[in-house]
Please model this.
Amino acid sequence: MYKVTFQFENGDDVTAFAAPGENLLEVARKTNVAIDAPCSGNAACGKCRVKLAGGELDSAKTRHITEEEYAQGWRLSCVSKVVADVEILVPDIASAYRSRMKVADLGSAEELQIFEKTKADIADAGIAFKNDLEVVSVVMEEPSLDNTMPDNERLVWAVEDACGVSSVKLPFAVLQKLAEVLRKSAFRVQLVIRRADDLAEVLDILSADEKAQVCGLAVDIGTTTVSALIIDMTDGAILAKASAGNGQIRYGADVINRIIEQQKDGGRKKLQDAIISETLNPLIDAMCGASGVSPQHIYRMCVAGNTTMNHLFAGVDADPVRMEPFIPTFFETDSLYAQDLGLHIYPHARIIMAPNIGSYVGGDITAGTLASTIWNSEEMSLFIDLGTNGELVFGNSEFMMSCACSAGPAFEGGDISCGMRATDGAIEACTIDKETMEPTLTIVGDEGQKPIGICGSGIIDIISELFRCGIISPKGKFIREGERIRHDKYGMGSYVIAFKKDAASVKDIELTEVDIDNFIRAKGAIFSAIRVMLGSLDFDVSMIERVLVAGGIGSGINMKNAVSIGMFPDIELEKFTYIGNSSLSGAYAMLYSSEAEAKVADVAHNMTYLELSNEPSYMDEFVASCFLPHTDATLFPSLEMK
Amino acid sequence: MYKVTFQFENGDDVTAFAAPGENLLEVARKTNVAIDAPCSGNAACGKCRVKLAGGELDSAKTRHITEEEYAQGWRLSCVSKVVADVEILVPDIASAYRSRMKVADLGSAEELQIFEKTKADIADAGIAFKNDLEVVSVVMEEPSLDNTMPDNERLVWAVEDACGVSSVKLPFAVLQKLAEVLRKSAFRVQLVIRRADDLAEVLDILSADEKAQVCGLAVDIGTTTVSALIIDMTDGAILAKASAGNGQIRYGADVINRIIEQQKDGGRKKLQDAIISETLNPLIDAMCGASGVSPQHIYRMCVAGNTTMNHLFAGVDADPVRMEPFIPTFFETDSLYAQDLGLHIYPHARIIMAPNIGSYVGGDITAGTLASTIWNSEEMSLFIDLGTNGELVFGNSEFMMSCACSAGPAFEGGDISCGMRATDGAIEACTIDKETMEPTLTIVGDEGQKPIGICGSGIIDIISELFRCGIISPKGKFIREGERIRHDKYGMGSYVIAFKKDAASVKDIELTEVDIDNFIRAKGAIFSAIRVMLGSLDFDVSMIERVLVAGGIGSGINMKNAVSIGMFPDIELEKFTYIGNSSLSGAYAMLYSSEAEAKVADVAHNMTYLELSNEPSYMDEFVASCFLPHTDATLFPSLEMK
Model:
């Protein structure tokens, strides 16, 4: 075995051991060192580059590494074999993906306000916030030589009596602790009960003096980012919040590469472990630690994710999702319990999944549509979820149509060299002085917080401002010179937003032409999807009465700038509202409210799905949209007039 | 760590490693070296004696080891600490317990005949041999861009149609393999279905060309011996049979010591592992290997065992079973699935347990009572199950009363120095010439099989013959001299049944006074229980119209000899029948037939339970019965007349 040391620019070190000849990217994956590999290790994308800092690698040469770079030690990890002890420098463009778990990072006042507003909107739409869980106290006669009923029958009788039901179910987990709890508390116990019609299922049994806590877990499984809430199921109070990078990222940036990866031997297990053991369980443990909730008191879970994420989460083959005729194993399922998946919560907790409606419109969108409440209004509304898969729903209380496009992780700061999620230290807004080209930044966090990176809303502002100031061309190339403008030896330009001395970062925070290009493709995917979907209905953007924007892009999103770079259609700015992480808000509602759970199923059944890849015009629209703001300037009349 | 080598008289060696100061009995248990410890390591019984063959032990002296024995190297393992590398000789009296797994050892023609007879009796009593499992073939339309129903909905529709049910359940295990199987076989599949009223549960899905095999597993979990069958659920054919020692034996010979052991830290897990991981899973693997059945095709399991065995099997606290008021967690339960217990069969297989009716009358008796068919006859019948717990049922189609007594493992060859189960090489019958004192033996197995040890029926014959020939006294002490009679230096007598040269054994096969004493106490427990139970009903033995004897004692049982040693009441010999392992036959019936399953519940509900320990006369009756044949000779008039 050889020793492999992964070094990070922030000074962190991770050590692993590899067999002679083992693939370096595989070693990194096994060690949970997240090296960006959007193509999943097929030497196609050139993103998994690392730098040899000591020792030796047996690496094939590829078109992605120049001779000069090769001489400097740059290698593609997917074509490198370990042949000796070796030290590897993992560059920041990759380490930006390292899972940054943050407990309570949805705690910003604005985010919380947006969340509470969504809850209120759902309640206003007539959804009662009530669920099927309750705590029931029962007192049984103690057994004696004259009263010899066994414990389980004694409990069933007591539950039938207390709940007025004729059928009671005791799962194995309760059977196993029954004798001990009953005797410890002299046959006075508290029960966590799940009711369904005439049936009461005893989920848990606690002694009379234990604190009965009935909690729930809502999770938004995004392709790039996973966000979660633990709530009190009795009053809906949020007890903990957290988010983290999706651990599957090292198996590909988008769903297609992950599906390809899960097709390999043992791949399903690897992808499932990456989301469950490496992402969700640590997230649950951290939230429980922060809030004092016992994981064993989480009795219900709701998951919202796209169709692929749902299948990989359940350990179910996702390959049919990407292969014509695109038929997944399930849209909806009630077969899942926590113990089946190895989740660190109550083993018999039921897992509710927001239903998918197609291979590329999943539970994140049905849950998000619930949260958007567009189904409750006569106004023609456009709901846009800016995730790695960008998803759109257009409609009102009469009809709804949805579609999805692959935008990549740029909106969440992925695929951007200094990108990050909208947490403390993120540049969330920016203006640039046209004369001096000096930026003025707004940073997420407390007064005095120094910038660490750029979140989605910040990138929109910077690109919009660079374009407005004539610093970049409509194609995103630098066309002015200055202290903050740099070109590397290959000619790639970049703009320094914050010099290292002013930043809480190990290097200058900059936006490169590659970053800008990635973002332009992301925004182009969204805009072209809007055009094609409305076109398929013979609608025009002028008919849109409101636009609800969701996603991890950040509450700082400047709609005017988003329009001016051609991401959103050029309509009145008052029509735009940012509604935060609607997938998580929807999952929250489904978790806490059985009526919301039913409503989402209803929404899913009534939604039409448009498969963009079947629309002949989509590719042309996309290409035309990869421009600032668009190749057809007439689509942006308000910009023309300026 | 020190090296501990356990040596056996047959030349086997087992090596283990122990921490300095570690208890030797614990080391043996961890290593699966079964040293007999009926008192479970409390230095009370003196049975865990081993001999130091090399190295050193730090052992307390006890009353169980004389000074001379101590000097010879004899030690009690439960009071010995490992303080150096050490070699330990495990004497045969202990190694007799070593788990002797035997696949197909119920295969003797007599045993099989008895088993088939029992099946026929149950069928004659009107029980239909049918169950809720079936294989259904379905053909679905293949999905297309115009038919985009997801796999699970497609399957549910097909099942509703094929089975005429309105509700279909797909467990997680099926969801996980759905996509692959459907596509591999072009949407033509076979389903293993469990039906209940209007519900069809899809237990498994197989491609059209796979061989669908629907098997079941019946297990009799005895305190000393575990027996099992794998059957074809479609026609009831027996595909494999096996038995093995219960791996829990090293935690105590009887249920009380095992309950005490499971009360210790981690004890429940240890006892459950001993029965599941160490006994049942190897037994299942061996049977599947022998018969070519895939463990994944075992979709239903039925377990018959006493109340303690059932609780330890389920990993449920058994302590309340032994503590007044003797209330177990369950008599019946439908909460158990194979995956909960880590059994090597289909994870979602339901586990049916023959119901317990009291702390000391369990599922082995309710299942056995089903097999005895005494509930189907007007004749007053006595059903006797000769196990480690001896259990009795008396009654007819009008009423039934049951009771249990602790007989110890002697009937199965346990607690007997040369004892063994009724498998190949067991001496199952014996006569002794009064003059020469030479024995004539009947050995289980093929022509020419040499004796290995003595099974229960053989012990009855030998004791009866020794008594008839005046070789032993009514107290079981040797009172004649001869070549085959020996006395060791402490004066303990023994009778050599087969000299080493004539045996397939590493030493002479003999019966010692300690063996005889153990057996007399076992038979005394049975006889006194019969007396007390009949007495409580104001019945007399003369009113018994038939006696059905069950248990692992062997089909060779000589009823006349059993009467002559005072084990069974002195009534006409034609009234006695040996019905084999009724617990396993009952479990078989319940496994294969849903009606039998219901019938056992019915039998259990209608059976009265007599707690012998609450009967003041029981102890006196027991003491009076520990004599050949009994202290009150008038109870055995037929013997008097000889």
User: Anything to note?
Assistant: The interface with chain A takes residues 143-145, 147-153, 169-172, 174-176, 178-180, 183, 314-317, 319-320, 324-331, 333, 335-337, 340, 356, 358, 614 of chain B (CB under 8 Å). Confidence is low (pLDDT under 50) at residues 93-101 of chain B. The longest helix of chain B spans residues 267-291.
